[in-house]
């Protein structure tokens, strides 16, 4: 298993480099986030030993278990799944970045919890770029409003945007959504809503389309299946 994970990581990094070069970009600009949903602590440790520096968790229960097991030692951890309001206290201050802030209520709860802890929590706004009813995220229009609200808060730092476009049925089909996300990222950055610094993270692209996401400007890709093999459950964020 460890050998497979190492080989898969090398293959994904090679594809990231190829896509970055094709876009005239520095591969070093792109962060590989290993989507570790349903993985064991042993597999996570093997991935980190093989060079993974960022792990992304979908579920609070798994995040807590792996934190208690010290499975992420040597890497930073992001929360990339849908965050329920009653689980905020288990995530704020425990992860380097919450990628899935999808509304004003959640943003306010994160601010309140971070203030209680005396910290600044880094976040991304999740955008439902495909307008799918089955997915979380704000509309592109509401992303501006949420960014402005985040800019007024003292205990959150808006680092950028995240999106999960519709499932592509043919190669390259999602580039239109990635391009729209890149433009939204540029537009919000231009308005300087962020109260701490310019946004620097555009999280988009998963196992089936991360190369296309890089071609359109992604700075972080969330890859699970291509690193760890197929999972039996829903792979919405990896």
Q: How is this fold's topology laid out?
A:
Layout (H helix, E strand, L loop, with lengths): L1 H21 L8 E5 L5 H9 L4 E4 L2 H9 L7 E4 L17 E5 L2 H14 L3 E7 L12 H12 L4 E8 L11 H17 L9 E3 L6 H6 L4 E4 L1 H4 L10
Question: Explain this structure to me?
Answer:
The chain is of the alpha/beta class and 238 residues long. The protein has one domain (2-223): Alpha-Beta Barrel (TIM Barrel). Helix content is 39%, strand content 17%. The protein is built from 8 helices and 8 strands; from the N terminus they run αβαβαββαβαβαβαβα. The protein has helices at residues 2-22, 41-49, 60-68, 104-117, 140-151, 175-191, 210-215, 225-228; strands at 31-35, 54-57, 76-79, 97-101, 121-127, 156-163, 201-203, 220-223. It has an 8-stranded parallel beta sheet with strand order 7-6-5-4-3-2-1-8. The radius of gyration is 17 Å and the shape is globular. 45% of the residues are buried. Mean pLDDT is 93; it is low at 233-238.
């Amino acid at each position: 298993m460890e050998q497979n994970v190492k080989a898969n990581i090398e293959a994904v990094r090679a594809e990231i480099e190829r896509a970055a070069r094709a876009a005239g970009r520095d591969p070093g600009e792109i962060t590989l986030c290993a989507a570790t949903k349903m993985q064991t602590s042993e597999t996570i440790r093997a991935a980190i030993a093989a060079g993974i520096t960022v792990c992304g968790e979908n579920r609070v229960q798994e995040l807590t278990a792996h934190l208690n097991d010290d499975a992420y030692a040597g890497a930073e951890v992001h929360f990339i799944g849908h965050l329920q309001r009653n689980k905020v206290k288990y995530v704020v201050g425990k992860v380097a970045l919450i990628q899935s802030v999808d509304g004003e209520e959640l943003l306010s709860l994160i601010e309140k919890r971070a203030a209680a802890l005396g910290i600044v929590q880094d976040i991304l706004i999740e955008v439902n770029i495909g307008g799918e009813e089955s997915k979380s995220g704000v509309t592109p229009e509401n992303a501006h409003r949420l960014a402005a609200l985040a800019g007024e808060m003292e205990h959150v730092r808006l680092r950028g945007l995240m999106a999960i476009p519709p499932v592509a049925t043919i190669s390259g089909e999602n580039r239109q959504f990635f391009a729209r996300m890149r433009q939204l990222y540029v537009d919000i950055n231009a308005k300087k809503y962020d109260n701490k610094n310019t946004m620097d993270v555009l999280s988009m692209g998963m196992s089936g389309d991360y190369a296309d996401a890089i071609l359109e400007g992604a700075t972080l890709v969330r890859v699970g299946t291509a690193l760890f093999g197929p999972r039996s459950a829903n792979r919405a964020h990896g």
